[in-house]
UniProtKB/TrEMBL annotation:
Xref: Pfam families: ATP12
Subcellular location(s) of the protein: Mitochondrion inner membrane
Protein name as catalogued: ATP synthase mitochondrial F1 complex assembly factor 2
Function comment: Plays a role in the assembly of the F1 component of the mitochondrial ATP synthase (ATPase).
Subunit description: Interacts with ATP5F1B; involved in the assembly of the F1 component of the mitochondrial ATP synthase (ATPase). Interacts with FMC1.
Membrane topology, record value: Peripheral membrane protein
Family of this protein: Belongs to the ATP12 family.
Amino acid sequence: PPERKRFYQNVSISQGEGGFEINLDHRKLKTPQAKLFTVPSEALAIAVATEWDSQKDTIKFYTMHLTTLCNTALDNPTQRNKMQLIRAAVKFLETDTVCYRVEEPAALAELQKNEWDPVVAWAEKRYNVAIGSSTSILGPNIPARTKETFVSHLASYNMWALQGIEYVITQLKSLILSMGLIDRHITVEKAVLLSRLEEEYQIQRWGNVEWAHDYDLCELRARAAAGTLFVHLCSESSTVKHKLLQD
């Protein structure tokens, strides 16, 4: 949406029957489909309220990733159920960024091996699966058992967290990197770097359009970080609030 002039002074949260609500002065925040904006945890409500409170003279909706994710979870515009969300996430394995390798140039092939092999090995050990990689345009042949293992693992998350997981996967173009990030095995900066490895290699070799590269990098980090935070805040108890406030 286009930017809108800030129309409120104060942002607060309150607990309602369905969860925690966001108040803009005396107005209740609503979703694009006019549903009451209600989130399942106080910690998430605090994070969303912070997004709204951080807006200055105008409301920049494109900077409010947590609000957007909550709207998606509440309105479910694609009308998918839990299993459909899980299957969509697992399908990314077939085109996972870290599974597609080049043979030429040799320097890039070596870089992919050095940087991507460790995270693939971690995922194989962590989930007791076989993943592998391929230089074929068809990609690796992911075993059915591997897919079913990830289906079972993702089924342990609730619908809200799954929306966040799919969002992170879409940003990184990788289920493996996303799970490494959500499981706290790698940082946001590392996950983003690994997802852009070929692009970063080309930039090191040929240079870049400075402002465009910096903007894209920061935006991707912001989206990946917001999605990961969303997953954690939707998966953990309200005691997260205390840690969030301390941090």
